[in-house]
Amino acid sequence: MFLYNIITFLLFILFLTRPCLASPCPGEPISEDSISPWNIDISRNGPLPQGNGTPLIGKNIYLEKCAACHGASGDGFMDIYPALRGGIGSLATKTPLRTVGSFWPSPESVLDYVRRAMPLNAPQSLNADDLYSVVSYLLYINNIIPQDFPLNEKTISSVKMPNRNGFIDTGEENGKITFPYKEVQDRLGNCFRKK
Q1: FRET label pair with 153: which of 19, 22, 161, 180, CA 20 to 30 Å apart?
Q2: Angle subtended by helix axes 128-141 and 107-117, to nearest 10
């Protein structure tokens, strides 16, 4: 029995270390080529993917890839998949509806989320033109942009989201995050104290 336990232990160790033999282990340097597939974040400060889309094109892509979960009109599905439109002005009420139009602070944050996580059954499968098209359609059904608005890396910064002032800026654009104590105290009153 002792020999059996030793062999099992050695096989277990071999099994655990095998992934390290094929790829870098924790603490070992990793190449830029290994990082680049994961480094796809999008922010207001760039970099933005190069592409172009309009709500008219985005509607067709949305109906093909998104409507099964979020509904043909973006109203959600049976409280399982969230609504993507409506709710503007509802966040401070007893029945807030968090949608693309009511909650998200910037169009870049919507672009980032859709790029990373949608469609649910095939995340990161949208090319840049499809990505801009779907996001432009979401902005259109929330009455944020007109139907003929060309959304791309140059025009996206001109889009003003309804909840753009609903978030506190942490100063990430400088590469370091600083907590905005003064702004939080102004919003919350004296109940917030810096420690």
Answers
A1: 180
A2: 130
Sketch out the chain's domains with CATH numbers. 48-164 (1.10.760.10), 170-195 (no CATH)
Give mean pLDDT, residues 150-156: 96
| Residues 44-54 pLDDT 10s | 776 899 999 99
* Per-residue model confidence (pLDDT) at position 153: 95
Token pair, residue 61, equals 């892509």
- pTM surpassing 0.85? no
What are the C-alpha distances in Å from 13 to residues 6, 7, 19, 101, 125? Answer: 11, 10, 11, 51, 36
Separation of alpha carbons 104 and 132, rounded Å: 16
